[in-house]
Amino acid sequence: MTELRADQAFLRDVQYRSDANLAARQSIYGYQQPRVDLVAEVLGLVDLPSAGLIADIGCGNGRYLAELTRRGFLGRSLGIDLSAGMLAAARAAAPPAGLAAADVSALPLGDGVARLTLAMHMLYHVPDPAGAIRELRRVTRPGGAVIVGLNGAGHMREMRTAIEQAGLGYPRERVSLDEGETLLRAVFPTVTRYDFPAQLRLPGPEPVADYVRSISQAKKTPDIEAVIRDITGRIFRSDAVASFNVTAHAGCLVCV
């Protein structure tokens, strides 16, 4: 049975039919301390080309494409995603960008056409991560860069524990930052790792409930609201619990 996180039909038609679930998970980082603007941090790690193509593979709702527009990138930006719903959200966020529905295993791009290729927090959704990495390299020009975003193995561990204690399955990272680094070093001669550790301080049940509703397993749970009440009741079991502190550990790998 295909794991939900890598089930392409489920991701395209259910989990990411629109950007609502992704947006819910993104919103939880509003409680991050210290605050990390991951999009700005990642794009600040490389010198953006003044022209040519920047390809954002698994572009989601277009946050990186929008930042490229904000920075005045004058070349061509292209967002590729499996989900038409995500592409609709990306179109609204970054109207100048080109968009295409495609699978990372067979990108509709020629060899070496991109000067910079982004693959942010999408590799764990791919059935064959090693094959996807080879495809990312194929479409990137010699001397160009590929940036892959992933999470550390301990990312959201307190949230995962609370969800599992309520009996709701929650898979571990299919490809962690450590595992991604190993895969990328087998393909690229130079890989530089950047870690962005932080903590989420969630002030009450609402952000926890929104997060749980957004995960893949929630779509397969008949009475998810009862499970959410169980989870939030365990976490905020008394008025003395001021906040729920959750580990956040994002990172990226810059490959040349």
Can you walk me through this structure?
- This protein has 256 residues and is of the alpha/beta class.
- It has one domain (4-156, 172-202, 247-255): 3-Layer(aba) Sandwich (Rossmann fold), CATH 3.40.50.
- Helices cover 35% and strands 23% of the residues.
- The protein is built from ten helices and eight strands.
- The chain has helices at residues 8-15, 20-27, 38-43, 63-70, 84-93, 129-138, 157-165, 177-185, 205-214, 224-235; strands at residues 32-33, 53-57, 76-81, 98-101, 114-120, 140-151, 191-202, 244-255.
- Strands 1-7-8-6-5-2-3-4 form an eight-stranded mixed beta sheet, with helices on both faces.
- Helix 9 packs antiparallel against helix 10.
- The chain is globular and about 55 Å long.
- The model has no long low-confidence stretch (mean pLDDT 93).
